[in-house]
Structures are given as C-alpha cells and as structure tokens.
Amino acid sequence: MQADATVGAAAGVGRGVPVRGLTVLYDAQCSLCTFLRDWLVKQPQLVPLEMVPAGSDEAQRRHPGLDHAATLDEITVVGDAGQVYRGGAAWIVTLWALREHRGLAHRLSTPAGARLAKGAVLAAAKWRGAQWGGARQGGAQRGGPQGGGAQWGGRTYRRGDGWSYDPSWGWAYNPPGCESGSCPTR
To answer: How far is residue 152's CA from residue 29's CA, in Å, rounded to a whole number?
Structure first.
C-alpha cells in the first residue's frame, strides 16, 4: 500500500509510521458509497475506521490540505499520521483495517492484486457515473428530481428491473427476459 507521495511527504509521513486509525472520506450523496459505509461500520475492525462525508465541513476542518473536490470523485482514506490513500490503495488499506478481510488486503497489495483492486475502483466509478448520468462537473453539481440536476444515487434496486440480493454474495443483476420476443433496445 502506497500513500500519496505528495501529501504524505508534505505531512512528514515516512515508511514505518504505524497506522492506528483511518478516516474514510465517502460520498454521502452516493447510494453505493453509503451502502459500503454502512457495511464497513458493521465489520470487526483491527484498526478503527471513522466515516466522514467527503467535501463536508468536518472533512475540510480535519484535513485542510486535501483537494476536497477530488475526494468526491475518488475514494480517499487518511491515516492518523497524515498518510493519504486514493483509489485502489484506499480500498486495500480499508480492507486491511478489517479483521475478516486483512488476508484479502495482503493479496490485493501484490502487483496482480493491485490490478484487481484498480479494476474494482474503476467499476465502482463507472457505476457512479452511470447513476449521475454524466452531468456531474467537478463535484459541484448535485441534485435530484426536485433539484433540477441529474439524479445521483438514492435509487432503489427493484426485482422487476432484474436486481436480487443474496446476503452471502450481495447484489446481482440479471436483466428481465424477453419471452414476448420484443426486448427494448438502447
């Protein structure tokens, strides 16, 4: 796991500094992000995780040196000694903090595992982008049906739309069949 070199160096963070706590900056307007936040807080933790909405007054007060607009676009985790992890490294360090997922974090910290973690981050970003509809600009534009902007998160998964949930595996999508022979095209 590599901390962001520019922020870490500026904060005087070097290798060998123990991590005793992590702050996960998550997008509170994103349904996937809040789902993961809720999942994380229920997990047994070896290293305490604190969840703080990205871009919030609290996040800006705690971490004034961060680019807070960027924290809305990419998962960011901050260690108690100023270490900053982004993207795949942020996912890995968060899993590393969890008792039942530390082994997975070690596997993901290998070169092959890092590619897998990066793929997971890109898939999540693509999903978030699809929910936003491509209208988001620099994290400043948010809205919903009542706000006049594109919808961002907060939607429900419906069985009729092809979604199902299994507690062992999570959410799965199987598009509805085309028994009538007339499937809608995009």
So the answer is: 7
Exposure of 120 in the CB half-sphere (CA atoms within 13 A): 15
Residues 78, 82, 88: CA angle, nearest 5 degrees: 40
Q: Which residue has the tokens 């789902």?
A: 35
With tokens 């509805």, the residue in question is 176
> Over the stretch 58-72, which tens digit does the pLDDT of each residue have?
999 999 999 998 888
Bridge partners, residue 166, by sequence = 170
pTM beyond cutoff 0.90: no
Rounded Cα distance, 110 and 124, in Å = 21
Give the tokens for residue 52. Answer: 């703080």
Closest CA to 70 of 59, 81, 79, 61: 59
Q: How far apart (Å, rounded) are the C-alpha atoms in residues 9 and 29?
A: 31
Q: Report long-range pairs for 97-104 (Cβ below 8 Å, ≥24 apart).
A: 97/19, 97/22, 97/45, 97/46, 97/47, 97/48, 97/49, 98/40, 98/43, 98/44, 98/45, 98/46, 99/43, 99/44, 99/45, 99/46, 100/43, 100/44, 101/43, 102/46
